[in-house]
Amino acid sequence: MVAAFSHPILFENMNVRIFPVILLLIFVEFGFSQSPTIDPNSPCGTGDLSTYFAQMNFSSSDIQLRSSTTSYFPLNVVSVGNDQGQGHLDPVTIRSSLCALNQDFEFLDVQFYIKDEIKYLNRTSYYDHDKNSGFEMMRNNNDRNAFNVYIVDNPDSTCGYFNQTNPAIAIAKNCFEGGLHALTHEMGHYLGLPHTFFGWENLTYNQTRVPRTLSIRGSDTLYTERVSGQYCDKASDGFCDTPPDYLGFRWSCDRDGYSLDTYVDPDGVEFKVDGRNFMSYSLNSCQETFSTEQSNKMLVNLLDSRNGLYSGLKYQFVADELVSGENIVPIAPAQDAEVNYLNVRLQWEALAGSTEYYVEISRFPGILFNEDPNKITLVSTNSFVDVGANNLLLDTKYYWKVYPLNPFTLCPVSSTEQKFTTRTQTNTQQFSNGEKVTIFPNVLSGQDRNINIQYMVQQAKTFHIDLIDLQGKVVLSQDSHILGDTTEPFQLPNLTAGMYFFKFSNGQDYLIQKIIIQ
Ligand SMILES: [Zn+2]
After folding, report:
1. What is the pTM of this model?
2. Domain 432-517, what architecture?
């Protein structure tokens, strides 16, 4: 197994002067590095939360707080890398992993969104940390007006933990990536839930001696939860609708989500542990729900303006509509086009509601696309990206897709896969002022009469275009008004096979581009 490492590099603004739009372009490279340090089945590292839970007032917990509309809460998402800036998950993976959190909370009509944008922090002592360093990271980087989530490589040798002192979650990449429920479990702690096996964290079950009470921190005493429900509000996690659970270690379940072994309560009643609860220690695949009482406690913390610890964080405005790549309309290059590999601009129609776009480029189509460790990821606030020289191989077919995003879209959906082939630089010449015009492809076959004209210009201007055959006869003549750097599709007239020349005049001088129709 390998972990993907990446390091974002900020590109310079590459826009033309007449349209000074903000362009954020992060180029993410992937390579291979050492094996993952955290097993996805590692335990939760959340410590004793008695002090934290004591701040919560649940006199109103029996009130039905569910609203008919979805409530949104901000996440301060901090992706932590090492000192060299490596180790970050790519932005689509981070979103797709947060998607699992939203799916798990959807039944409560609660959703989370990314406040501002994903933040990047590079420090090895945080990336791979013990609790001291982790708590320092949270103290220095928490946002008091959001739920704080730090994505790291190794959070104190656990899958993740919640810190009650400076409220924040640290989550291991390996327990976060790919739709796991570890973050949901930690969010349960954040919102006031103990483990369903509370009191058994450091105890081993012994069938011949099941204690009637459990000692917490050596002083507080809890009843051991019983199948009958007796003392259930004073037993273990204090919820009457979470059945007995004595398993303070990771365990696998049967197909219905229950423990493979049978246990006995202090009354001698046999039972199997229900592993479907997010706050149990069953394996990820068993987990699917919170109980009603657990849900009510979380909803009080989220929605009750008098008693809720976090009700002040609720998003007060109308959330943005979600955006989907299904609505992306690609512009250039045309599907299957051949492009000048030194200067590839991928472009699509701007999609309403999108605040940024993630573009992925791979040499592989279909399911191999997502697995490609050398996938190129670009981020742009504009509806195009320039892939840049030296990032693409020559004479290679590439596949690309776009994810439109906004802060509320945590389950990104990509556009359909587009493809192009890189060819060597066409017959580019330069005007005396340094401006260039390039056509591609410059070899057409069959009935294809579609090419692209790429203008690299300093300011808006009009080019006169003549298309000339080998005999010097002008077969097409027109003007093209260009606002700035752009690539425009161009349809040739129905010409017979042969060689032709494009003559581009800018008023002072001209350059010639050759095109062959086979
Ligand atoms: Zn836990």
Report:
1. 0.76
2. Sandwich (2.60)
